[in-house]
Amino acid sequence: MFAWLAACSPGANEQGKARPVTLHLFTWSDYTEESVVKEFERRFGVKVVTDTFGSNEELLAKLQGGAAGYDVVVPSDYMVSILIKQGLLAELDHAKIPNLAHVYKHLKGLYYDPQNTYSLPYLWGTTGIGYNADLVKPPPESWQALWDARYKGKISLLNDEREVFGMALRAAGESLNATQPAKLEAAKARLMAQKALVKTYTSENYDQLLVSGEVALAHGWSGTVLRAADERPSIKYVIPKEGGTIWQDNLCVLKSSAHKDEAMAFINFLLEPQVAALITSKVKYASASEEARLFVPKEIAQNPAIYPPASVVARLEWIKDVGEAIKLYDRAWTELKVK
Amino acid sequence: MSTIQLGGAPADAPPKPTFPWLIVPPAATLILLFGVPLALVFAVSFASRGTYGGIEWAFTLGNYTSIADPLYLRIFWRSLWLAVLTTVICLLMGFPLAYVIARAPTRWQGILLFLVIIPFWTNFLVRTYAWMFILRSEGLLSTVLSALGLTHEPLPLLFTDAAVLIGLVYGYLPFMVLPLYAALERLDPSLIEAAWDLYARPFQVFTRVVLPLSKPGVIAGCVLVFIPSLGAYVTPDLLGGARSMMIGNLIQHQYLVVRDWPFGSALSFVLMAGVLAAVLYYLRAGGARSL
């Protein structure tokens, strides 16, 4: 692999002398490890500019607005299938991404891209409840905790339509990909009733709200909650018994990218086991690289909230593209937000 | 250059009309960066959305008719109410402030005006985040109030309408103070003295002399505060906690969340029409010549 890097670097550097290539990365907020990006820039003579989004829908909307010069994007599973249908993604050259060999077999070829033609697994995690054990007693086991009037004004939900409706659907024992109007109406009614208890809808700073005590219960993503727990040990993460979302974020190159070779070199670099381990240690989401687990600290590699056991994974469900029904979700989400 | 020559032409010889070249750069900028995008948005407002968003060029008036949905009308009404409230509070707070500055000794006026514009040195987003820290229930305001014994439990101010109102008033107060100051500074003090000499009571001095003479400043200040408050986006998003929207947030939601660009475009045009109508009304109601 280093031989390959050595073979590749001079080319990149030569180009770098003429006109340094700038790679534009469009990813989730709080999802990058600065030292890793610096190392890539140093090794390849390529400058990386990072821009962030807060939801898959925001990513899609901005790409539909003309892709705006991004090269590498990090959509979740169901959004990969939509981006493929929209013809926005470039085919990946697996020969240029040898670190693909380290990726867990069961994370490759998932439903949204069976041959990994357009996307490679990057990080994965779950959606559950982050709570402050000093304030929430007994510890929550069910999504119903988010409807508990005792915590009025102390609850935050993700600002993400599929996650919020998914949570309400699972709480009622439904699939989080339900498309029947009646089921969505019922979920909307439950969310409307819940809104009086909700302090805020946010996908970006709920870790700080948990740490500062502003909220006691946060509907959130595993790694973000675990980062809050580092700052305030009474913060815990639980996947409710009804089950929730399992998701995987993916590395993709846009069809409109002018620097596809550099983009694929960047993807290969992010999947390098030691690099991937650094990222996982920082963001606290499990790396798709199996080798990476050997290089992360023990408390992360053995943390069931980061690497959940198979028995927990069995309770989880992937968000899938719901086709035309997305209009029902959009409408219901708008109604919930404007109420 | 040609305009300078025109200015120097003898008064009796009518200036030869030449093409005003100096207007070309600003006009081109305006047409290219404002006119063209606006026309595009207008065109999109009659299109339809695709399943995953995007634009399908099938003509429809549906985007405009669906604004009549009570769901959206309520947001327009709410935004209007918050914008009016912001304008009134800014006027009530800004008028005494502007009056004190205008009546202060000249060397103090510069310093006081300077203090009013100091917040502009910091990015608005950063100042709004600072308000989040002040307003949160373990934040500065709540802590100070309970230390003074005024409240007994944490004050849940952040992510409420009150927080949005505080943020709007804070953000736009300088836009009220500056035009008011300009108007009050021009006010001839001898007119106020004359009113006193003619036995006017303080209230009469204010309503019959100070207020009418500062009307241009009041109108300019109200317009400058009302328009940005009506379309506010960052303040309700950060301080309102994305729980309740103003029109700005509804438009953003259409564009970036549910990807219904045609409907977002229609909303933008209705908002613009509303603002235009409000401004025209203001100008008619009081002294268009003053602006």
Structure description:
Helix content of chain A is 39%, strand content 17%. Chain A has 2 domains: 2-124 and 247-306, 3-Layer(aba) Sandwich (D-Maltodextrin-Binding Protein, domain 2), CATH 3.40.190; 125-245 and 313-338, 3-Layer(aba) Sandwich (D-Maltodextrin-Binding Protein, domain 2), CATH 3.40.190. In chain A, strands 1, 2, 3, 4, 5, 6, 7, 8, 9, 10 and 11 form an 11-stranded mixed beta sheet that branches. With 339 residues, chain A is an alpha/beta fold. Chain A contains 13 helices and 11 strands. Chain B has 291 residues and is mainly alpha-helical. Chain B has a single domain, classed as MetI-like (MetI-like fold). Helix content of chain B is 70%, strand content 2%. A two-stranded antiparallel sheet of chain B has the order 1-2. Residues 1-9 of chain B have low confidence and may be disordered. The chains are: A alpha/beta (339), B mainly alpha (291).
Task: Present the secondary structure layout.
The complex is a heterodimer of chains A (339) and B (291).
Chain A: H1 2-18, E1 22-28, H2 34-44, E2 47-53, H3 56-64, E3 72-73, H4 77-85, E4 120-132, E5 155-157, H5 161-171, H6 181-194, E6 198-201, H7 206-212, E7 217-221, H8 222-231, E8 235-238, E9 245-253, H9 260-270, H10 273-283, E10 286-287, H11 298-301, H12 310-313, E11 317-318, H13 326-338
Parallel strand pairs in A: 1-2, 1-3, 5-6, 5-7, 9-11
Antiparallel strand pairs in A: 3-9, 4-7, 4-8, 4-9, 4-10
Chain B: H1 2-8, H2 24-44, E1 48-50, E2 53-56, H3 62-65, H4 70-103, H5 106-117, H6 124-135, H7 140-147, H8 161-186, H9 189-197, H10 202-213, H11 215-230, H12 234-239, H13 247-257, H14 261-285
Antiparallel strand pairs in B: 1-2
